[in-house]
Amino acid sequence: MHTQYVVGVTAVLEIEGLRKTYRSRRKGARRALDGFDMVVEAGQVHGFLGPNGSGKTTTLRTLLGLIRPNGGRMAILGEEVPARLSSVAGRVGAIVESPQFFPHFSAQDTLSLLADAGEVPQARVAEVLELVGLRDRAKERVKTYSLGMKQRLAVASALLKNPQLLILDEPANGLDPGGIREMRDLMRQLSASGMTVVLSSHILGEVQQICDSVTIISLGRRVASGPVAEVLAQHSGGGVVVRLESAGDLSSAAQVLVAAGARVDLKPDHLLVTGVDKPAWVTRTLAGRELYVSELAPVTVDLESVFLELTGTAPVAGQHRQVDQSVEVPA
């Protein structure tokens, strides 16, 4: 059973104006983080999203004291980091990138060693093995594990301390569909217990299902943040899909709506109408000209399409986008 946490501050994680510049003789200066901001509230599952090279992993490594920033402010559980990182390290569990384990050790041995090092009761080892689905394979050597099983072990190691804040970088890496669903259920279970989870993932459909809120980073800057539903709503455009009883009337209907002040995109089998306050206005306007609507539905967007739009990483026909080749998207 997990502990119910009471956090003294609402924001478990705060980042303000974080900057990190890498310099090399060959490539010169590269801004990995360019004034990045992020806030994660207590008890949330928070999705941290960004394309390759966006600064996502640099942010996580900086938070954990593995990289020294060039500027900005960070706080975990109300404590300034890196200055006070030692005082909160015991309440933070994290896996960043692909952790390495001794290949000839079993999962049981690995976690037992980590528990001893962290002064965690050995009974907790059996609990986390059960949680991540490795109970029946716990005594097998790690070198025999698949990528997905090693990922489960990594999550188990991060859970050993029963942390208040859990940071997971691509926890579904290598998992099969069943494993991905189990990981999703585990994240919900942990959140329900009061744990705050920061989840970095490229499986955006999963993020949309599991996360309460998201932050999207591109080129070292925050390009979107907030509850998932609000981020999606902000980029739906408020449009409606309109279908008529007779597809032959689409062109006439488009002309009527444009004349009445709407913006209309004529598609082969429907109209995409924007610039209207209430969808019912479309129905009334067309009915007044004896054009009858058979379907009226709000435009819905998914997190993947919003992500591609905001980070400028949508595929372009005939082009092969290179790693780090994001583009700045006008605000």
Automatic annotation (TrEMBL):
Keyword ATP-binding: yes
Gene3D superfamilies the record matches: P-loop containing nucleotide triphosphate hydrolases
Keywords on record: ATP-binding, Nucleotide-binding, Transport
ATP-binding among keywords: yes
Domain of life from the UniProt record: Bacteria
Pfam families noted in UniProt: ABC_tran
UniProt domain ABC transporter: residue ranges: 13-244
GO molecular function: ATP binding; ATP hydrolysis activity
Family per similarity comment: Belongs to the ABC transporter superfamily.
Name used for this protein in its record: ABC transporter ATP-binding protein
Source organism per UniProt: Phytohabitans suffuscus
